[in-house]
């Protein structure tokens, strides 16, 4: 992925750079104009010459000011549009990540890439127009101007710059190395902060504030230490350049004053040497600062490309149309291993789901029962084996069509900041208000929703934090009722509900989905009793299969799970 493709309207770059060059040329001409005014006007007491020269210099200053403002405007315009387009594509890419790809990045890392890294990348473009186009002209122009006054002085400046350059390269290399460390540690610090803010209630409930504060202090101290190293080298760059150049200026003045006294060139030329050396010093410091920005942007661009270059599943038009009715689903020797794990989470899974059947899955925590059904829901792709829908391989259908037909309700109800209505329809605005209200009633959520001032248009905070655990689960179940899936997977979706509420909701689900495929993942006996067949999962494999009565006699593990 070439990031330069995100720079739109490249003619604006040409305009911005052109105006910066005009500004730089005027800055080089001003000392010459001042010198001429001193020699031909002030020393000769020619008032007309002084007036004309003053007006011309003021005119040049006004033109330089307008050029600078125009260049700055285009620099910011190009940079902001670049960052905007880049962030949109990064966000689109992230939104299409599979759970496996999410696991390759932390949430804090994704957030920092989307915000801080995008800013650093855009800032480099802005500074390229504002500084990279101006500073070289000032450096070269100042050297040429000094050379025309006295070649020996220009040679001294070049020698000084030659000594300075290797030292600055060392500073810059260390800065780049330290900035990469800062980015990584900033991800870690953001992760700790996000985790603490999200889990603040639990932390307080178990009196863990001190422990979490200590953890934050350690991470904060670590990043501060690295930032200090980074800032040390960056702080040394400017002063080192200034000291070298002004020391060189002192040497030049020491040599130039006797020459000026001898009448070889005028005092005004000596003043021009001082001005051009100062301009050269400022330009070199600007270049060093620009290189510092480039070191940050290079590191940020690497992280941005890592994200943008991730291969994602793309929908193609050559897929089969998913039938309106899903009659059967078969798992044939399905296996899956999570990234950075050596052992498979599920292995050689064979399941047979028929329309009108209720299938139960149970097992210990971490046995792999959720992973099996998350593959059916499209969260993960099997690494071995295949899933057949109506006898056709799963990957022959569009993932978007499958997700429209297959619903997955997890134990941890997920909500976005918005309204209750928006969180239930989840972008499917064909679902009417009446259907949402009916779904809320079936999920025993109608009463507490309608008690709110705005009813179904009441606000839902991020992650649904303004609702209790039981309320969140009921809203999540209402989402399933409203979408009327062909296949519904309930993954411990009643865990926060009392037995009476669970019983009422479960009976309505059994009625609504009696002609469809329903999967119940649970360790509750009351939930599993509704299943026609139950699969007991242990260590990623099917340990036993049968109905409740059969399993109580044939599977000690099942008996232990439901009795506990």
From TrEMBL:
Domain of life: Bacteria
An annotated Gene Ontology molecular function: ATP binding
Domain (ABC transporter) ranges: 329-564
Subcellular location: Cell membrane
Membrane topology per record: Multi-pass membrane protein
Keyword Magnesium carried by entry: no
Domain ABC transmembrane type-1: 14-296
GO CC terms of this entry: plasma membrane
Name of this protein: ABC-type multidrug/protein/lipid transport system ATPase component
Organism encoding this protein: Acholeplasma hippikon
């Amino acid at each position: 992925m070439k990031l330069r493709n995100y720079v739109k309207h490249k003619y604006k770059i040409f305009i911005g750079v052109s105006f910066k060059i005009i500004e730089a040329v005027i800055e080089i001409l001003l000392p010459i104009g001042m010198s001429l005014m001193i020699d031909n006007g002030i020393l000769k007491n020619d008032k007309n010459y002084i007036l004309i020269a003053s007006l011309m210099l003021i005119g040049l200053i006004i033109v330089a000011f307008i050029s600078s403002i125009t260049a700055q405007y285009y620099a910011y315009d190009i940079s902001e549009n670049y960052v905007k387009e880049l962030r949109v594509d990064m966000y689109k890419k992230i939104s299409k990540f599979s759970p496996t790809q999410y696991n390759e990045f932390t949430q804090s890392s994704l957030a920092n890439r989307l915000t801080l890294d995008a800013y650093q990348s855009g800032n480099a473009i802005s500074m390229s127009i504002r500084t990279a186009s101006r500073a070289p002209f000032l450096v070269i122009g100042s050297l040429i101007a000094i050379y025309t006054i006295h070649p020996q002085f220009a040679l001294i400046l070049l020698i000084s710059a030659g000594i300075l350059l290797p030292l600055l390269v060392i500073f810059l290399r260390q800065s780049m190395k330290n900035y990469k460390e800062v980015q990584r540690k900033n991800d870690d610090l953001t992760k700790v902060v996000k985790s603490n803010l999200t889990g603040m209630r639990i932390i307080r409930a178990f009196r863990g504030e001190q422990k979490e504060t200590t953890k934050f202090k350690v991470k904060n101290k670590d990043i501060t230490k690295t930032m200090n190293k980074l800032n040390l080298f960056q702080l040394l760059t400017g002063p080192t350049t200034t000291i070298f150049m002004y020391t060189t200026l002192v040497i030049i003045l020491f040599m130039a004053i006797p020459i000026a006294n001898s009448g070889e060139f005028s005092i005004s030329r000596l003043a021009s040497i001082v001005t051009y050396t100062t301009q050269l010093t400022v330009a070199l410091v600007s270049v060093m600062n620009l290189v510092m920005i480039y070191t940050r942007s290079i590191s940020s661009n690497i992280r941005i490309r890592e994200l943008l270059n991730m291969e994602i599943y793309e929908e193609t038009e050559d897929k089969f149309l998913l039938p309106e009715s899903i009659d059967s689903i078969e798992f044939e020797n399905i296996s899956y291993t999570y990234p950075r794990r050596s052992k498979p989470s599920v292995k050689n899974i064979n399941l047979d789901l028929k329309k009108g059947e209720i299938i139960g899955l149970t097992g210990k925590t971490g046995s792999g029962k959720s992973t099996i059904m998350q593959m059916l829901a499209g969260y993960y792709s099997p690494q071995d084996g295949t899933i057949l829908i109506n006898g056709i391989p799963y990957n022959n259908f569009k993932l978007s069509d499958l997700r429209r037909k297959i619903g997955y309700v997890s134990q941890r109800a997920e909500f976005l900041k918005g309204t209750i209505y928006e969180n239930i329809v989840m972008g499917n605005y064909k679902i009417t208000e009446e259907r949402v209200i009916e779904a809320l009633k079936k999920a025993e959520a109608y009463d507490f929703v309608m008690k709110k001032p705005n009813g179904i248009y009441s606000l839902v905070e991020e992650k649904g934090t303004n609702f209790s655990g039981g309320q969140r689960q009921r809203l999540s179940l209402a989402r399933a009722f409203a979408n009327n899936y062909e296949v519904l997977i309930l993954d411990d979706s009643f865990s926060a509900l009392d037995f009476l509420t669970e019983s009422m909701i479960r009976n309505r689900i059994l009625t609504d989905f009696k002609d469809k495929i329903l999967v119940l993942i649970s360790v509750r006996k009351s939930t599993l009793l509704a299943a026609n067949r139950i699969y007991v999962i242990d260590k990623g494999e099917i340990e036993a299969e049968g109905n409740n009565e059969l399993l109580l006699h044939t599977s000690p593990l099942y008996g232990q799970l439901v009795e506990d």
